[in-house]
Amino acid sequence: MGITGDMNEIDLDTGILDKYEDKVVRKASNMRGFYGDEEALEKLIKSGDPIIYEVYAVPREGEGELSYGVTILHPGTVGGEFYMTKGHYHEKRDRAEIYIGIRGEGLLLMQNGDEVKWEEMKRGTIVYVPPFWAHRSINTGDEDFVFLAIYPGDAGHDYGTIAEKGFAKIVIKEGNGYAIIDNPRYR
Ligand code: PAN
Ligand code: ZN
Question: Which atom of ligand 1 is least distant from the CA of 129?
């Protein structure tokens, strides 16, 4: 991993970036408070604390710049809820984002106040996250769900609001598919 210039390369089959400057790894133990079934999460942590997702990013933090990153969200469930990202609002609420699906399948769940919407994602899907919408991705498949995200350099990440309140909907495994249901813990 070196410092990148203005050029980089993504392997469109795997999502692997040739160069990146930031790597974030979120294990089960980093996801305390995010799942309804806390016991199931503790069990998962005890049984080896698996990685839930990894982010490989090239940040450019100034106003007017763009940052981008690839997220690799592994498959699995915690008490019936699929593996997912923490989710966040942008600190600067009016900053939008673009998600591009690369591999696997998932959902992009978005929330603005109490209003919720979502889009299914797979290889080639492009989803526009408008300004003011919080966003969380969810792996609804049985292989890695991989996507590229491009966002304003000065967007910033507010994790606190979602960590405290959650999303109004959660995504659970149902048969071979998924169901999107009201979050009983939503505040
Ligand atoms: C994405 C996310 C990435 C990880 O790059 O940061 O998928 O999700 P969390 O940040 O919620 O842990 C993005 O939306 N950037 O703005
Ligand atoms: Zn974002």
Answer: 14
Contacts of residue 86, defined as CB under 8 A and 6 or more positions apart, other chains included, come to 26, 31, 34, 136, 159, 162, 163
For ligand 1, atom 3: residue with the closest CA: 71
**CATH architecture classification, 22-182:** Sandwich (2.60)
The pTM for the full model equals: 0.96
Residue nearest to atom 16 of ligand 1 (CA): 151
Task: Name the phi and psi angles at 109, rounded to 5.
Answer: -95, 130
Token pair of 66 as six digits: 């763009």
pLDDT tens per residue, range 25-67: 999 999 999 999 999 999 999 999 999 999 999 999 999 999 9
Q: Is the CB of 152 under 6 A from ligand 1?
A: no
Domain residue spans of the chain: 22-182
